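Ops channel
N.P.: pipeline sanity check, posting one input/output pair.
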């Protein structure tokens, strides 16, 4: 039974405000980029004592009250007042402090609709399945000054960027304690050690933002300003980021402005109207995900999303945002049949408001934080996704190369005896490889929903499956583009990913799996240490075919180039299980070519075919070049040979 409420005056100070006229003006324009410091719940002092200031946007509300554990969830005792005509309701509540649990009780002007909503700007929410917000400050003493000063170089397109993609809830679990997930602080030491041991430069977290349904992996976000409380507090998450930074590891966060779930406590139908989403389901509802689409044409909604993006960069020191499902934002007819969508003002299928929002997002992020990156998961051929806005691009820093992933996995699924008939599935990529600044992803999407693990996609007996997997990784690291592997791939996990399980760490006790782990570490070391393999990842000058046409023997060979000294690495990939001796390739330089990587080396689980440390170039012209190398190609193998000369070819 609720206690009798005291007078509103004793519980709410309506004279106190954090909002200035400029705040309101910028908010309504959608250009207030520090709004998360004003809306939501903030510790404050009204002159008589400490308390909490609450502010929420609900322009179609008849009334808004704050109900919580501090007033026995009384929906009438703590009213907010409207701030002029801004649509914002506010009030200062003395005595309400850190840890108070609350919701906004909103009564709408529309049909006397009532609902209890979590705070859209809340910094912390209850552990699901509970759904209330928690008053919380974000105070934290960072120790990553060195990383933050120098991270621009680490995030550069000319730097080695090798990303380890992680789902927080299933990376490692504690079997002795009901198989629970590790918390943010528990995770830090093990994750840092694992990432450093394997040589990854960045960690990318599947959405760490609060989400009610664990099985959505975070992609059904409700807390756009709150890390998931499943694993700890905001300070705990900051500690995890801080530890990664102190060990020279960048942090990329998945961010989801493409859609949001319809949970009653969330953003949908927030004040009894379609406030954040379009009212017409042909514009405002995603058929694929049963979720709602943001109204990108509404200034306040754009401001909300831009604030969320900047919040994670500024408050949590994120080094990049990977924007999920960009294609679903760009196309009005995405996953829709004729008649199920509304054309734009020109009769086209492009979502012009979303295009403008994405450009504004990128321009704003890079203006405030030029040392970070934005990365688009965009699965179509939309032009110039990662090109500057002033030349007609969307302004992203990088884009996932979904075409490479699809074509390569399709090619490797063929039995090697048939691969010569599908050679173009490998070579086609280089037609468009420099149209964008690409990340080459082997992500979580490829190892779920019955697709099997990467190892499970490989044909042949056990030896051939592991050899094919090592070849896939070698080919990936040799091609131009930044790299991304989902957790478990670094040990050749046998089973596909399950969000309610853990990475199969026990498989590292098996020699073939531990060899995969060593191969990934070797690839990452070479990728980071050899400028030819990363410095010109996104420029045509960094790549040159030696021979793309040997379809009969299913062999590819090419040069990677880069660095001030004219560094050269030749890569040869044999996609059949047949060793090839006396295989000659043309090279532009004489001298010794040292074998720096071989996927068939004994230490990596191979059969030991190779070139005994390297090959001396001979003055025998081949492939239109003045010198050549006579090689032994391992079965289902990739070899990397570095020129010991340093002059320009």
């Amino acid at each position: 039974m609720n206690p009798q409420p005291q007078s509103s005056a004793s519980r709410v100070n309506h004279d106190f405000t954090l909002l200035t006229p400029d705040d309101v003006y910028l908010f309504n324009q959608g250009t207030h980029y520090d709004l998360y410091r004003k809306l939501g719940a903030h510790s404050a002092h009204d002159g008589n004592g400490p308390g909490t200031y609450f502010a929420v946007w609900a322009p179609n509300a008849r009334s808004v009250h704050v109900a919580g554990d501090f007033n026995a969830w009384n929906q009438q005792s703590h009213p907010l007042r409207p701030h002029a005509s801004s649509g914002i309701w506010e009030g200062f509540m003395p005595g309400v402090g850190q840890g108070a649990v609350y919701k906004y009780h909103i009564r709408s002007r529309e049909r006397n609709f009532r609902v209890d909503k979590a705070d859209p700007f809340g910094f912390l929410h209850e552990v699901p399945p509970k759904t209330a917000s928690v008053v919380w400050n974000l105070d934290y003493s960072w120790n990553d000054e060195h990383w933050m000063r120098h991270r621009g170089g680490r995030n550069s397109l000319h730097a080695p960027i090798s990303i380890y993609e992680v789902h927080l809830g299933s990376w490692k679990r504690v079997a002795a304690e009901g198989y629970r997930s590790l918390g943010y602080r528990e995770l830090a030491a093990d994750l840092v050690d694992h990432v450093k041991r394997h040589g990854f430069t960045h960690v990318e977290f599947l959405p760490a933002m609060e989400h009610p349904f664990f099985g959505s992996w975070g992609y059904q976000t409700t807390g756009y300003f709150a890390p998931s409380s499943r694993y700890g507090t905001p300070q705990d998450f900051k500690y995890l980021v801080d530890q990664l930074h102190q060990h020279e590891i960048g942090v990329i966060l998945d961010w989801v402005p493409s859609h949001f779930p319809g949970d009653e406590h969330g953003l949908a139908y927030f004040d009894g109207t379609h406030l954040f989403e379009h009212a017409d389901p042909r514009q405002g509802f995603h058929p694929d995900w049963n979720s709602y689409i943001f109204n990108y044409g509404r200034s306040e909604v754009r401001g909300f999303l831009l604030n969320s993006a900047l919040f994670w960069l500024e408050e949590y020191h994120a080094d990049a945002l990977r924007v999920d499902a960009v294609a679903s934002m760009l196309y009005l007819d995405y996953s829709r049949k004729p008649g199920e969508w509304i054309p734009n003002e020109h009769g086209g299928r492009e979502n012009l408001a979303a295009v403008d929002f994405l450009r504004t997002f990128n321009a704003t992020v890079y203006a405030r934080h030029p040392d970070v990156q934005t990365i688009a998961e965009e699965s179509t051929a939309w032009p110039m996704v990662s090109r500057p806005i002033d030349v007609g691009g969307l302004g992203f820093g990088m884009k996932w190369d979904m075409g490479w992933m699809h074509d390569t996995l399709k090619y490797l699924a063929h039995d090697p005896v048939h691969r010569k008939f599908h050679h173009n599935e490998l070579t086609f990529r280089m037609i468009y490889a420099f149209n964008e600044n690409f990340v080459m992803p082997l992500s979580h999407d490829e190892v779920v929903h019955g697709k099997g693990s990467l190892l499970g996609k490989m044909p042949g007996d056990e030896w051939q499956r592991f050899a094919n997997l090592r070849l896939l990784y070698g080919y990936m690291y040799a091609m131009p583009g930044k790299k991304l592997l989902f957790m478990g791939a670094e040990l050749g996990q046998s089973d596909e990913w399950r969000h309610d399980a853990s990475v199969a760490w026990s498989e590292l006790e098996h020699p073939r799996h531990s060899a995969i782990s060593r191969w990934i570490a070797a690839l990452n070391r070479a990728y980071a240490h050899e400028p030819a393999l990363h410095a010109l990842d996104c420029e045509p000058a960094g790549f040159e075919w030696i021979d793309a046409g040997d379809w009969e023997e299913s062999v590819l060979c090419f040069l990677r180039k880069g660095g001030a000294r004219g560094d050269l690495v030749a890569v040869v990939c044999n996609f059949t299980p047949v060793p090839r001796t006396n295989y000659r390739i043309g090279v532009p330089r004489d001298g010794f070519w040292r074998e720096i990587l071989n996927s068939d080396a004994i230490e990596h689980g191979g059969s030991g075919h190779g070139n005994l440390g390297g090959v001396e170039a001979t003055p025998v012209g081949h492939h239109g070049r003045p010198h050549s190398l006579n090689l032994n190609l391992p079965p289902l193998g990739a070899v990397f040979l570095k020129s010991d000369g340093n002059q320009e070819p």
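N.P.: looks fine end to end. Residues 540-643 form a domain with the Immunoglobulin-like fold (CATH 2.60.40.1180).
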